[in-house]
Design a protein that fits this description.
One of its GO terms (molecular function) is DNA binding. 50% of the residues lie in helices and 7% in strands. The chain has 11 helices and 3 strands, in the order ααβαβαβααααααα. It has a 3-stranded parallel beta sheet with strand order 1-2-3. Helix 2 runs parallel beside helix 3, helix 4 crosses helix 6 and helix 8 packs across helix 10.
């Protein structure tokens, strides 16, 4: 009701994770709001399976898989890292305001990621507690070599949760220039959005817990 009232077309609903996967295959949505605790199959596994589906290309060559926002009542650290590592583009609590929910859907639909500095800090804490052998490396050092020194600088700050406006202020650049740098970073590292970029930065070792912007 909240989304439809704001002009967003709701193409399907599902009562559990398995039904969600089928609904995505049938309706081809742009954005999925995914609960975590559900019968049959939980939202994290459903997210993994949806994003593991072949990415049918569209006219401009973009990834046609949906963007997924994890929407839950459970504000627990264990879900933050797992949801983003599974490929989710954002993480919201169910007590979010209607305006924030609508804004989040539109933001993620445009290819951005819903990742606040607070969520980033918790992701880092969770990541730091994991044994090294359990961390899949999504952006090896060899791939990072493709980035220019300026792109590496932007990547490190992006991984700390800075927005484009904050990046622009910190680096004394225009927001348009920052957006260009971010887009090139994502393309070179074959990442879908900023959420994946944050996970990749820590899993590659480029950024470590306790790092702060200079």
């Amino acid at each position: 009701m909240i989304l439809a009232a704001d002009g967003i077309e709701v193409v399907g609903e599902a009562a559990d994770g398995l039904a969600a996967i089928e609904a995505v295959r049938r309706t081809r949505p742009d954005v999925v709001l995914m609960d975590i605790r559900m019968p049959e199959l939980d939202g994290l596994e459903a997210t993994r399976r949806i994003l593991a589906e072949p990415a049918d290309a569209v006219a401009d060559g973009a990834d046609a898989r949906p963007r997924i926002i994890i929407l839950t009542t459970f504000d627990l650290d264990e879900y933050v890292y797992d949801a983003l590592a599974a490929g989710a583009s954002g993480f919201l609590l169910k007590d979010v305001t209607p305006e924030h929910l609508v804004g989040a859907v539109r933001l993620v639909r445009c290819g951005d990621a819903l990742l606040s500095p607070g969520i980033t800090r918790r992701l880092v804490e969770k990541f730091a507690a994991r044994p090294a052998e359990t961390r899949p490396v999504r952006a090896p050092r060899a791939e990072l070599a493709a980035l220019t020194p300026r792109e590496l600088e932007v990547f490190r700050l992006l991984a700390r949760g800075l927005s484009n406006a904050e990046l622009a202020e910190h680096l004394v650049l225009s927001e348009a220039t920052v957006k260009t740098h971010v887009a090139r970073i994502l393309a070179k590292l074959q990442l879908r959005d900023r959420a994946q970029a944050v996970v990749a930065a820590y899993e590659s070792g480029l950024v470590t817990p306790g790092d702060v912007p200079d």
